[in-house]
Amino acid sequence: MTTLKDQLSARVEEYTKWEIRRQYGAEGPNMRRLWVLACMDERLPVDEALGIRADSPVGGGDAHLFRNAGGIVTDDAIRSAMLTINFFGTKEIVVLQHTGCGMLSANGNDLVSALEAKGVDVDKVPIDPSLPEMSLGAGAFGKWIGMMDDVDETCMKTVDYLKNHPLIPDDIVISGWVWETEFRRLRAPTTNDDVRARTQYSTGTMGVKGPQPPRWS
Ligand SMILES: [Zn+2]
């Protein structure tokens, strides 16, 4: 019989390994050697959707989890993926986006107009105040916001961008998935509208008019 003393000793040892894991670089990977790119939406339960435990130090630690608006490729998504894949032993990428996403809920051009109405010059705002070398070309701010026309198409393109990026080696396994917020169900990205029925998968289904600034073209 295992005593409580044995169990607690093992747990303390696991905590110690957890704390110093990063010191071992590629020899100290997360439990599933996994990087997840997911939307920041609070209605997207990453652990439930993927059947992993990303955050808990006891029985968890499955992934490095990166969340932003939409779960899309951005400069910092590339930066973070590059680090975990090339230096921390990660071998797989999962992209997780979802229906009813806020990034489908407005047109990027309208958001630019709203900011300009507040007196913001979107062509002059620092994109990264700690790195002034990083800047957008004039008129690119609307694209930079990254509003989507269609979550499935965006998910597939996000996977393609990662697969074809020179900082992501060819042997990394990369897949993309869509969480149906309406039904708490995961599905593969698809353009089949029969499969997507009764979900908010596009700007059209969310009542937004006009194509987005062409980030995804
Ligand atoms: Zn979202």
The tally of strands reads 5
Q: What's the CATH class label of the largest domain? A: Alpha Beta
CATH superfamily of the largest domain: Carbonic anhydrase
Query: Which residue ranges are poorly predicted, with pLDDT under 50 across at least 5 consecutive positions?
Result: none
Given the structure, what is the number of helices?
7
CATH third-level topology of the largest domain? Beta-carbonic Anhydrase, Chain A
Class of secondary structure makeup: alpha/beta
What small-molecule ligands were found?
zinc ion
Task: Note the topology.
Layout: H1 4-20, E1 34-39, H2 46-50, E2 63-68, H3 75-87, E3 92-98, H4 108-117, H5 141-145, H6 151-163, E4 173-180, E5 185-187, H7 193-196
Parallel strand pairs: 1-2, 1-3, 3-4
Antiparallel strand pairs: 4-5
